[in-house]
Specification:
2 helices; alpha+beta; Alpha-Beta Plaits
């Protein structure tokens, strides 16, 4: 019954995750590496990058193929606990 957690998301699915942080050369590769811990087949071409108007911040929209809520939760926890990440939506 643990797998029957309430969710409106039907798995498996492509799920967009927005990650924001300060602009840094290694930000995108760090985020991709964190996602690949949980989904090794994650395709880096599925990352959209957008800089803030002032250029201080960057946002990445990473479309990740996930197969379960626990997997998605693990990805969110990894991303949100990284010191370079300001927000994960």
């Amino acid at each position: 019954m643990a797998e029957q957690e309430e969710t409106l998301i039907e798995f498996p699915t492509d799920f967009p995750i927005k990650v924001m942080g300060e602009t840094h050369d290694a930000f995108a590769s760090t985020i991709i590496d964190l996602i690949r811990v949980h989904t090794p087949e994650f395709d880096a071409s599925r990352v959209e990058m957008r800089a803030s108007s002032g250029g201080r911040y960057i946002s990445l929209t990473c479309t990740v193929f996930v197969t379960s809520k626990p997997q998605l939760d693990d990805i969110y926890r990894s991303l949100s606990s990284h010191p370079a990440v300001k927000y994960v939506l």
